[in-house]
C-alpha cells in the first residue's frame, strides 16, 4: 500500500489550529483529500475537454493479498450510469491499474480495442460509451495518492496539449494531498509539522499569482487559444467556431508568437500561467 509522504518545505501545511487529537487531525486530512480529489475529477471534465473524469483512491481491496496494491474509483464527473462508481481496481488491471503499477501515465485511443491492457472493465466502459482514455498517477516521490482518469466518448489520440493539461491538474492535486498528509501527523523529530515548516496550507488548486502582463491577443485569438488549451484539434476548433482550418492555424501561430512559445504544449502552459485560460 502507500506510505505517508515525508514532510518537506515544498509541501505547504496548516499553520494554525492543528488538531491536538491525532484522530481528529486524520479526519481533517481525509476531508481535505476528498475535496481535492472530487474537484480534480470535475476539473478534468471542465478544463481538459474530457467527457468523464474519474479518480481512484488507494485502498486495501477485499480478498487481496497482504501488501498488494489496489484502489477504488471514489470520485467521478460526467458519468451517465453508476457502473464505474466505487469500482475496485487492483494494480495492473485495466488502464488505471496499469498506471498504478507502473507509476507512469498511460493512454489509449480506443480502450475496448487496446491490446496492451486487460479488459476486466469493458462492460462498465461500454455502458458509459467511452473510448479514448488517459490515466495519470498522483505521485509524490514513491507515494501514490491516487490515479486520475480522463475519458472521451470518441476514438481519438491523446495529444501533448491534453496530456499536459491533465498532468498539470494532477501535480496541483498531489501538492495539496501531500500537504494534507503532512499536516495530519508529526515530523520524525517530534515537532508538530506546522512549527517546522512554517507555511500556511494552500487551498486545493490555488492558482499561482503572477505579475506578468497579459499579451495583447485579439478576441478571436483568445477564443481559438481557449479551445486549443483543452486539447481540441484545429479541425474541431474550426467546426465549432465556423472557421477554416487555415484560419485557426493562423490565429494559433499569431498567439504563439505573442506568447513567445514554439508549440501547442508550450502555448497551453503559457496561456494558463498568464491567466488567459483557467
Helix content: 40-55%
Find the count of extended strands (DSSP E, 2+ residues).
6
Oligomer: single chain
Average of the residue pLDDT scores: 79
What's the overall geometry? globular
Judged by helices, strands and strand pairing, the structural class is alpha+beta
- Radius of gyration (CA) equals 20 Å
Main pleated sheet: 6 strands, antiparallel
**How far is it from the N-terminal to the C-terminal residue, by CA?**
34 Å
Order of helices and strands: HEEEHEHEEHHHHHH
Number of helices: 9
Report strand %: 5-15%
Low-confidence stretches: 1-18, 186-211
Sheet with most strands: strand arrangement:
3-2-1-6-5-4
Give the topology.
Blueprint: H1 22-48, E1 52-58, E2 70-77, E3 88-90, H2 94-102, E4 106-108, H3 122-127, E5 133-140, E6 143-151, H4 160-183, H5 193-197, H6 219-228, H7 234-241, H8 245-259, H9 264-273
Antiparallel strand pairs: 1-2, 1-6, 2-3, 4-5, 5-6
Helix pairs in contact: 1-4, 4-9, 6-8, 7-8, 8-9
Descriptive overview:
This protein has 278 residues and is of the alpha+beta class. The protein is 41% helix and 14% strand. The chain contains nine helices and six strands, in the order H-E-E-E-H-E-H-E-E-H-H-H-H-H-H. The protein has helices at 22-48, 94-102, 122-127, 160-183, 193-197, 219-228, 234-241, 245-259, 264-273; strands at 52-58, 70-77, 88-90, 106-108, 133-140, 143-151. It has a six-stranded antiparallel β-sheet with strand order 3-2-1-6-5-4, with helices on both faces. It is globular. The protein starts with 21 loop residues before the first helix and ends in a 5-residue tail after the last helix. The model is unreliable at 1-18 and 186-211 (pLDDT under 50).
Amino acid at each position: 500500500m502507500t506510505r505517508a509522504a515525508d514532510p518537506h518545505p515544498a509541501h505547504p501545511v496548516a499553520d494554525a489550529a492543528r488538531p491536538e487529537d491525532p484522530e481528529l487531525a486524520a479526519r481533517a486530512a481525509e476531508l481535505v483529500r476528498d475535496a481535492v480529489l472530487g474537484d480534480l475529477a470535475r476539473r478534468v471534465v471542465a478544463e481538459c475537454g474530457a467527457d468523464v473524469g474519474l479518480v481512484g483512491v488507494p485502498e486495501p481491496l477485499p480478498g487481496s493479498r497482504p501488501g498488494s496494491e489496489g484502489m477504488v474509483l471514489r470520485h467521478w464527473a460526467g458519468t451517465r450510469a453508476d457502473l464505474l462508481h466505487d469500482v475496485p481496481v487492483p494494480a495492473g488491471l485495466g488502464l488505471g491499474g496499469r498506471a498504478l503499477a507502473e507509476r507512469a501515465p498511460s493512454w489509449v485511443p480506443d480502450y475496448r480495442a487496446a491490446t496492451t491492457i486487460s479488459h476486466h472493465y469493458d462492460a462498465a466502459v461500454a455502458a458509459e460509451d467511452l473510448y479514448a482514455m488517459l490515466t495519470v498517477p498522483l505521485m509524490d516521490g514513491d507515494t501514490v495518492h491516487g490515479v486520475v482518469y480522463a475519458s472521451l466518448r470518441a476514438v481519438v489520440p491523446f495529444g501533448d496539449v491534453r496530456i499536459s493539461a491533465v498532468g498539470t491538474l494532477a501535480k496541483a492535486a498531489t501538492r495539496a494531498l501531500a500537504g494534507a498528509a503532512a499536516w495530519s501527523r508529526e515530523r520524525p523529530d517530534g515537532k508538530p509539522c506546522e512549527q517546522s515548516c512554517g507555511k500556511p496550507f494552500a487551498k486545493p488548486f490555488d492558482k499561482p499569482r503572477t505579475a506578468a502582463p497579459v499579451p495583447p491577443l485579439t478576441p478571436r485569438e483568445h477564443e481559438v487559444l481557449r479551445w486549443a488549451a483543452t486539447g481540441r484539434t484545429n479541425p474541431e476548433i474550426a467546426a465549432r467556431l465556423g472557421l477554416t482550418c487555415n484560419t485557426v492555424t493562423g490565429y494559433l501561430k499569431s498567439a504563439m508568437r505573442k506568447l513567445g512559445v514554439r508549440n501547442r504544449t508550450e502555448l497551453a502552459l503559457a496561456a494558463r500561467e498568464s491567466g488567459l485560460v483557467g
